[in-house]
Amino acid sequence: MTSAAESAATPAVWIYDTTLRDGAQREGLSLSIEDKLRIAHKLDDLGIPFIEGGWPGANPKDVQFFWQLKEEPLQQAEVVAFCSTRRPGKQAATDPMLQAILAAGTRWVTLFGKSWDLHVADSLQTTLDENLAMIGDTIAFLREQGRRVIYDAEHWFDGYKANPDYALQTLASALNAGAEWLVLCDTNGGTLPHEVGQIVQAVRQWLDRQPHPLPQPPRLGIHTHNDADMATANALAAVLEGAAMVQGTMNGYGERCGNANLCAVIPNLQLKLDRPCLAPAQLQSLTETSRLVSELVNLAPDEHAPFVGLSAFAHKGGIHVSAVEKNPKTYEHIVPAAIGNCRRIVVSDQSGLSNIVAKARSFGIELHKQDVASRQLLNRLKELENKGYQFEAAEASFELLMREVLGQRPRFFALRGFQVHCDNLPSEADWKTRSLATVKLQINEQEILEAAEGSGPVSALDKALRKALANFYPAIAEFQLSDYKVRILDGRAGTDAKTRVLIESSNGQQRWTTLGVSDNIIEASYQAVAEGLEYGLMLQKDPLTSCTIGVG
Fold this sequence. Notes:
By secondary structure, this protein is of the alpha/beta class. It has helices at residues 33-46, 60-71, 96-103, 117-124, 128-144, 156-162, 164-177, 193-208, 231-240, 262-272, 280-283, 286-296, 318-326, 353-362, 372-386, 395-405, 457-470, 521-541, and strands at residues 14-17, 50-54, 78-84, 108-114, 148-154, 181-186, 219-224, 245-248, 314-315, 344-345, 414-426, 431-443, 446-454, 480-488, 499-506, 510-518, 549-550. Strands 1-2-3-4-5-6-7-8 form an eight-stranded parallel β-barrel, surrounded by nine helices. The model is unreliable at 347-351 and 543-552 (pLDDT under 50).
C-alpha cells in the first residue's frame, strides 16, 4: 500500500482528520467501533492523508479500533495514534501509556505537549525545564521505536502571547528530538485571524533558522478550535503564512464549539486559494461524506452549512431563480458539483438529474438525463425526502428504490400484514418486557404466517421475518443486524413525531444500511429490517452489487 503521506502526488496542504478523537469529544456525540470503522473508511475514500483514530490505552474502544483496523486496512490514508508526553519525573521508555501507543502499530504518532508556561505550572505542576525534557524524551523514544512523529503544540497561541521565548523552546525540544511536523494549536479557540497570521509568520521565520536532525526540514501545521467562530478563518490564515497541514473534523464536530470544519476548509483551500488537498474526483464526494458522517454520529446535518448543506445552493423564486437559470455565477460562488452538492430551485425542482445519473453509474446502471426513468426517479426521490427519507447513509435502500423505478427490483417476498404485541411481565427481580410479533408474507404464491418472541418489538419482528423466510432463503441465517439507530425528525410533535430508522446489516463479508420513515416507529423499523433482508438476498444473487462496504 502506498499511503497518501508518501505519494508522489504531493498535496499543497496536507489534511489531517481528527473526527474520531477530537470530534467525538463533542457533547452528545458517541461513536461505536463500527461507526469509527465506517467513518475511517469513508475518509480514506475521500482521500484524507492522515486520519487520527484515537488514544490507544485511554479507553478499550480505541484499543479495539486500532486492532480491528488491522483486519480492515485503509487503502491510502495513514491512521495515526494520539497521546500526550510522558509524565513528569518518569522516563518515556518505562511509561505504560507509551507502550499502548506502540502496540497500536501505527507508523505515525501524534504527540501533544504543553506550550504555555501557565499550563506547565498549574496543570502539570512541574518545572519549565522538566516540560521541555518531557517533550524531547517522548519524541526521541518514539523515534527510536521506528515511529514518525507529529507534534501538536497545545495552547500554542496563548502560550506564545504570554511567553514567546519559552513557547519557542518547546518547539525546539520537539524539533531536536525528531518531530517531522510542528502543529500550532489554538486550543482555547479565542485567537483572531490577524494574530494567527502574525504568529505563524514569526514561527516560520524562526524555523527557517533552526538546525534539524532529519533529512527533510520539519513543516508547520495548524489546529484550531471554534470558540470565537474563527476556526476555519484561522486555519486559512495559517496556511497563507506557511502552514502545510490543517487539522480539523468533518462538519466541525468537537469539544465546546467544535474544531475547524474540514467541509469548509478543504474547498476554500482547493477552490479559492488554489492549494490542492484532494484529487478533483475525490473532492466531488465531500458532500456525501459530510452527510454520511452526520448520520453515523446520529446528529441532524446542518442544512445551511456552507458548501455541503442541503440549502447551500438552494434558490427560492423571484430574481434569484431567474438570474441563476441564465447564469449560475450570479448567485453561486462555486460550481456545486465540484464538492458533490447540487443546485436546488426550491419552487420548481429544476435540478438534480446529474446526481441521479452519477449515483446510478456507481450501481452499475447506465442512465442519461434524457431518460424518462431518470426524471421519475428524481421525482420519487424528492417525494421521499420531503417525507423525511435521507439516503446518504442508506445506499442499499436507494439502490432498491432505483431498481424499483427501473423495474429491476427482485421480489423475494411481499408483506401481507404484521402485528407486534408487548407484555410487561413480573420476573424474579423485577418486571420484564417481552414482545411477540406475527408476520404474514407471500412467497412464491404461498402465504406464510409466522410468530416469534424477542426482547423488544424490533427484535421480535426481525425474528418472525427470518422464520418466515428461512425455508425459502437459507442464506438469511448468515445475515446479522449490526446497528440500529433512531432519529426524531420533528421533535415538536412529541411522541407523535415522525422517526427515521437506520439499520446496518452484515453477511460477514459485506455491510449495508437501509432505512425506514414513519410516525410509527415499529412501521419505520419494519421498512428498514425488511429492506435489509431483501438487499442481503439481492447480494446473494449478485455479489457485485455496489453499495456495500467490505469487512472481510
